[in-house]
Amino acid sequence: MNRAVRVLLILAGLWLLSIVGSAQETTHDWAPFARLLGDWVGEGGGQAGQGTGEFSFHPDLQNRILVRKNYAAYPATKDRPAFRHDDLMVVYREPDNAPIRALYLDNEGHVIHYSVTASSDQKTIEFVSEALPASPRYRLTYLITGSDTLTLKFEIAPPGKPDSFTTYIEAKAKRK
């Protein structure tokens, strides 16, 4: 075989490997989150003591991660001034198809590591923090209630009682 044909075959093989390799590198199955993707606004709120807010879930880094951005604004009450809570959560997969994880950060200094599960019907997505002996445990649950509606619940379990969750926030949201 002459040299030109060999070079062409090698180049064609490298080209094919690069296509297959890049397809494998950027393909992530975020199907359980498909119904959460987009921009959401909280329903209700605005009454005395009730907050308002919005959040979004969007793929990023060439579909390798999902980014949730969230804010809640709370009006002043007789006991406290108005304030705003902002947070960011990055949902990711470890290599080798390990379970989905998430990292949560907020303007109050909280850093929470979550394990993430989705129900088989993909209507419920649950984020549960690690159980650490001297720390509270957190659970954030999204329940899809319609094509453009959901409820969310944020629960906290006290240190030493990792499965004794009590509701801290419960809200409804609709797609923008």
What characteristic shape results from the CA principal axes? globular
Query: At the third CATH level, what is the topology name?
Result: Lipocalin
**Class by SSE composition:** mainly beta
CATH superfamily grouping: Calycin beta-barrel core domain
For this entry, give a set of tags.
176 residues, 14% helix, ten-stranded antiparallel barrel
Can you tell me about this structure?
With 176 residues, the chain is mostly beta strands. It has a single domain (29-175), classed as Calycin beta-barrel core domain (Lipocalin). Helix content is 14%, strand content 48%. It is built from one helix and ten strands. It has one helix at 3-26; strands at 38-42, 52-60, 65-74, 83-93, 100-106, 111-118, 124-129, 137-146, 149-157, 166-175. It has a ten-stranded antiparallel beta barrel with strand order 1-2-3-4-5-6-7-8-9-10. It is globular. The model is unreliable at 14-27 (pLDDT under 50).
